[in-house]
Amino acid sequence: GQQVMQIPQYQHVQEGEDFTTYCNSSTTLSNIQWYKQRPGGHPVFLIQLVKSGEVKKQKRLTFQFGEAKKNSSLHITATQTTDVGTYFCASGGATNKLIFGTGTLLAVQP
Amino acid sequence: GAVVSQHPSRVICKSGTSVKIECRSLDFQATTMFWYRQFPKQSLMLMATSNEGSKATYEQGVEKDKFLINHASLTLSTLTVTSAHPEDSSFYICSALPGTGSYEQYFGPGTRLTVT
Questions:
Q1: For chain B, does the N or the C end have fewer beta carbons within 10 angstroms?
Q2: Whole-number mean pLDDT of chain A?
Q3: DSSP letter (8 states) at residue B15
Q4: DSSP-based three-state secondary structure for A83
Q5: A62 with A49: CB under 8 angstroms?
Q6: B101-110 per-position pLDDT tens digit
Q7: Between A107 and B101, where is the model more confident?
Q8: Are B105 and A45 an interchain contact pair (Cβ–Cβ within 8 Å)?
Q9: Could B107 and A103 be called an inter-chain contact, meaning their C-beta atoms sit closer than 8 Å?
Q10: pLDDT level of residue A93 (50, 70, 90 thresholds)
Q11: Cα distance from A49 to chain B (closest Cα, Å)?
């Protein structure tokens, strides 16, 4: 079945440094969603990208969908301790089922 | 708005018993709910799609007779883990999709199941 890989699995940064997680699929994606899960918490929706090459920004977060719609990235500028958590991409489709990526755990040291 | 609750938040049961987990959309109607399983430090694995008034659609490899899903109303879906075994111990999370054309899934807080 469809698999969505994310790299890196884990990233440790100093507060103020930038962070990027990458999401890759072997197949073309209808859309890509990004979720954040705080330690001990549940996933919270961040954004959905649908168009090839789409770029969306939310304050310090920048989301990008690849031209071929097979990859996506999330970039956080100047990380803060509140950014700690696991970031998942998830591929969606017509049935609204989500196939979650493997996730990237972000640790931010003050 | 868009709050999803799960009950119980934690449950410990003995091998061979059954456990029911409830997922409720508190302030919206959800025509579709999803059930996921998450192992420690791993991703969410979709188990099944639950549609109100119809049978659930299970993902490949998920035993429908072991994980019974009932979507009795537009605000409630239940997952029953039957004849639980220690390997069923996991974090079970539901999500709900409002029937308004929205693609954003709202997740419940999850249920930690421990089978002894």
A1: N
A2: 94
A3: T
A4: helix
A5: no
A6: 778 889 999 9
A7: A107
A8: yes
A9: no
A10: confident
A11: 11
- CB contacts < 8 A (A, B): 46
Report the relative pairing of strands A85-92 and A104-109 from DSSP bridges: antiparallel
Burial (CB count <10 Å: 0-12, 13-18, 19+), residue A98: buried
**Cα–Cα dist B91/B38, whole Å:** 5
Min Cα distance B34 → chain A (Å) is: 8
Residue type at position A17: E
Strand partners, B73: B76
pLDDT digits (tens, 9 = 90+) for B16-65: 999 999 999 999 998 899 999 999 889 999 999 998 888 899 999 999 99
CB contact under 8 A, A42 and B110: yes
> Any idea which residue has 């959905």 for tokens?
A48
pLDDT per residue over B90-103, tens digit each? 999 999 988 767 78
